[in-house]
Design brief:
The protein is mostly beta strands. The chain has one helix spanning 10-26; strands at 61-72, 75-83, 93-99, 106-112, 119-128, 142-150, 154-161, 169-170, 185-193, 198-205, 208-214, 221-227, 235-246, 249-262, 271-279, 284-286, 294-295, 303-307, 316-320, 335-336, 343-349, 355-361, 369-386, 395-402, 408-415, 423-428, 433-437, 453-457, 464-472, 475-480, 485-490, 499-519. The structure holds beta-D-fructofuranose. Beta-D-fructofuranose (FRU) binds next to β1, β5, β9, β13 and β18.
Amino acid sequence: MPSKKILLSTSGLVALLLSLIVIFFVNSPNDPPKQLAEGTGENVDYDQTFRPQFHYTPAENWMNDPNGMVYYEGEYHLFYQYNPKGDQFGNMSWGHAVSEDLVHWEELDVAMTPDEHGMIFSGSIIADEENKSGLFPDEEGGLVAFYTSAGDVQDQRIAYSTDKGRTWTKYEGNPVVPNPGIKDFRDPKVIWHEESEKYIMLLAAGNKIMFYGSRNLIDWDYLSEFGEVGAQGGVWETPELFELPVDGKEDDTRWVLQVDMNPGSIAGGSGGQYFLGDFNGTDFIRQEKTDDINWTDFGKDFYAAQAFNGKEDRLIWMAWMSNWQYAGDVPTEPWRGAMSIPREVTLVTDEKGEVQLAQQPAEELEALRGDVLYEAENKTISGPIQLEDFSSSTYEIVAEFDVGTAGEFGFRVRRSEDLKEETIVGYDTKNDLIFTDRMNSGKTSFHEGFPGVYRGPSPSKDGTVTLRIFVDRSSVELFANGDQQVMTNRIFPFQEADGLEVYSKNGDVTLKSMKIYEMNSIWNEE
Ligand code: FRU
């Protein structure tokens, strides 16, 4: 087993102290927003303390929601809310990155910037491969982007591209959906609805979702609205709609309407919920046994999830890994904002016979697995076990436990040598809950809403609990019990906090199997 432990010499200690001082001053939360140079940061390296190594981040500047996600001619396109001029929200534009394998991303030039009508807010892209819009010179078609123009009012506009999303022309007849007198009227998600043979646009409008239909992507008719249900703690944003088979059975499908809201989410601040039902081309009809809220993710940092259009075989989505509560204060520079790992979304029947969403890390991520850092089988855990010689800040844990007598068990990740820093990711057997405790996870004081313990119900199955955990330099994503419950949280530990402990509390637990893989960097390949 390779060990990367750093032995601290006296000069090492001095260097460490100096770097701590530098980190402290550079990242003081009271600093005015930095205005960084425009561009795609070719000279920025990707090795900063908090720079995610296998999650997408722009080289520099501010990023929030994923936008315009589409798989087209062999490329995954990830556009995103981006401020090309600084690391705070403002000048909202569409940044752009592409990937051929869903894990390695190349940042391209900014796709669209604000104009006299306003900023370019969130939206989506359709590959108009039959030129139904008539916007393209020939039958080959191209990409059509739908975005909200956010100026004095919010309305929906389109732009089109004939060069695989590299350059965009705004449509002369904009807006395609004018503002009907609603203040928050944004985030067009457009999908093709096979059954009614038309395109459907979903818009977030205050605390409801409005549906529009079109045959040519340009002329839109109002269809219906859905709302005044579910979590209502904040304004609804960035809707998403798709149909999936239940337990893989193609003849039993449900439509999923995912809606984000800010604030009012389960963990505080912004987050997502979903509704299950039918969509008949006009209305979304909720079909659920209870009125309980279905939370998309029980952590604090998974927002505005969007799925790739143009990917027929699987439903893959990604979300912004932050929370509006403190997104502007997170201690990273010269960039702010990160995307979650790509996740495959499915529908499964749970223990109670109810259909629910599952999110599985996209299988492409396995390509990033490096050395197996640790392996165990049928090991009884009684109390804390610090994994000897373990030192990593980027890894994946795949573990299966037999819930024995323990009241609680799990992992203490990103642990510092003095044990003052750690993030606890575990399972509470009394209450059947997964949790993440980031109270002492490193830098937490930049915002009072940041430190906390987050929990979500996650029933064990026949006494077995599975935990799959992705740890990166500034995040922890937990997929529990067949990926049916998910929890995403940012953390900001010092680089040297790279230890790992597996533990049980108030009794024993059996670690039936565990493998820990080093995750290779998508930026700095060895
Ligand atoms: C969601 C959101 C959207 C809006 C965008 C602006 O995070 O508030 O509703 O279009 O961000 O950047």
